[in-house]
Amino acid sequence: MSTKTNEHEYTSTVAVWAANFLLCTFVMALVVSLELGGKSK
């Protein structure tokens, strides 16, 4: 039973990490696009 719990916690941790990574990547891309947009203007 403890193995299943640990496995579930591990999966949740990876899911959260992946979500944070995607969010950071999206924000970085947004900032870069805004920077380029501001420079072109």
Automatic annotation (TrEMBL):
What keyword terms does UniProt attach to this protein? Membrane, Transmembrane, Transmembrane helix
Transmembrane stretches in the record are 14-36
Top-level taxon in the UniProt lineage:
Eukaryota
Q: What is this protein called?
A: Uncharacterized protein
Species in which this protein is naturally found: Alternaria tenuissima
